[in-house]
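Severity: low
Component: inverse-folding endpoint
Summary: output formatting inconsistent between runs
Steps to reproduce: submit the following structure tokens with default settings.
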């Protein structure tokens, strides 16, 4: 595991501590790494109106984008889940739009040293993108 991978997985694990998931009890943390070396974390936030729930990946992405961050090289996602949590379809779409070159690293919170790596492109081939 590279230093970047280890650092970003650790950042996602830290972000996970602030998950707001009273309905599912499923805590997810995500962290984005920018080309300039900045790390932006996020965690899932749930609502009593379940459909309003926002995944950790999108919280991190929206935080980063609205703080003026771009140029994402990787996103790490951590949850207590065998093999690590795979981003949902909605998050894959947003990653395809705003972090198309990012590596996606996922890990089980109980085994942070075991990281599975994907590309955004393989998670969402033939993504719908805005036409210019
Ligand atoms: N969740 C995430 O935050 N990211 C994922 O990749 C999968 C699912 C959240 C949404 C919801 O709060 C909880 O996990 C259960 O689905």
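Observed output (run 2 of 3):
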């Amino acid at each position: 595991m590279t230093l970047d991978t280890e650092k970003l997985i650790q950042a996602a694990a830290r972000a996970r501590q602030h998950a707001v998931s009273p309905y599912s009890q499923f805590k997810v943390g995500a962290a984005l790494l920018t080309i300039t070396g900045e790390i932006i974390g996020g965690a899932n936030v749930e609502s009593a109106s379940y459909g309003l729930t926002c995944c950790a990946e999108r919280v991190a992405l929206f935080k980063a984008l609205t703080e003026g961050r771009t140029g994402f090289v990787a996103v790490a996602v951590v949850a207590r889940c065998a093999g690590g949590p795979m981003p949902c379809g909605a998050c894959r779409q947003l990653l395809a739009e705003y972090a198309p070159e990012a590596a996606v690293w996922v890990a089980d919170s109980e085994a942070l040293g075991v990281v599975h790596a994907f590309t955004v492109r393989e998670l969402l081939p033939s993504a719908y993108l805005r036409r210019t």
